[in-house]
Amino acid sequence: MASVQISDVRKSFGGFEVLHGVTVPIEDGAFVVLVGPSGCGKSTLLRMLAGLERITSGTISIGERVVNDVQPKERDIAMVFQNYALYPHMTVAQNMGFSLKLRGADQNAIDSKVNRAADILDLRQLLDRFPRQLSGGQRQRVAMGRAIVRDPQVFLFDEPLSNLDAKLRVAMRTEIKELHQRLKTTTVYVTHDQIEAMTMADKIVVMHDGIVEQIGAPLELYDRPDNKFVAGFIGSPAMNFLDGTLKVNGGAPYVETANGAKLPLVDAPAASNGRPVSYGIRPEHLAFADSGIEAEVAVVEPTGSETQIVARVGNQEMIAVFRERHPIAPGDRIHLQPRPDVAHLFDRDNGQRLRA
Ligand SMILES: Nc1ncnc2c1ncn2[C@@H]1O[C@H](COP(=O)(O)OP(=O)(O)OP(=O)(O)O)[C@@H](O)[C@H]1O
Ligand SMILES: [Mg+2]
Question: Of all protein residues, whose CA lies closest to atom 30 belonging to ligand 1?
């Protein structure tokens, strides 16, 4: 195990910079998840950690050692890719033991490590099969087994579950988390999946266009996003945003929208009356009421455990989520009342969170 320090790392491909100075401290034994839109640089960062891609500037350290110029095989890192990259002509056992064989380990040592990993991952029955004879989930486990066998300082995962069906994803998610709790190996995990990020991470790194927007514990990002990007990215369905003007003139502050809706707040930054703001409210923090934001129901989506309602407010759309069932149909006019204690306030121009 080891800590990992990514310091002011930049990466250019042919003069075009795709990472603009990324700093991420990773504690020994942590499970860190990188999230962000497609093309923001997650895989590039992971590949640089693995040593598969050169760093244009900045430093990456593993433990005490700067690894900028260290070869991948000398870094003591194991990476699991989205497509698993198993050798088709080798059995499961051979796939798992291959890196040890390359290192010149003797067959007894290889067998004992492969068997131990096979036990952890429930692969004992499959050791003599070839990859083509396995299901997607089983292949995924073999790819993880191959990483475990190496007993590395750091695990890197690049969307390892994205080829699996929904049910298997959930099962594997739990398995990876349990594995981490057992081995406590420092892990950096890339995913597109909100739920994966929220449930697996000690710490989430939100990336966007080659920069880090925010780093924090999952619920910290959810409850106190630093800016509108993070607020809109973390959480599904996404936070609603309504533009308006801050009104702070004695009494409780509120945001007034162009069509006259008054959005309640508990408090507001000092001397901010008249400031243009964006009011953020999560779908589960809206309630039906006799007054509040006037909206027209566009779509009703019951999932069984809850109901999502897409409603139009002027030319904007809002999403509300309810646990209880309401007799509501498209075309109905409703009022949605935001909970002021969990409303978010952002500067309308730069999107930064405004703190009272
Ligand atoms: N070898 C390369 N040559 C040139 N540009 C590249 C290369 N690899 C990646 N890029 C560019 O760098 C940027 C970041 O790519 P990267 O693969 O890291 O994104 P990502 O966040 O992993 O996206 P996704 O979620 O789609 O996997 C993209 O604009 C991509 O086109
Ligand atoms: Mg990628």
Answer: 39
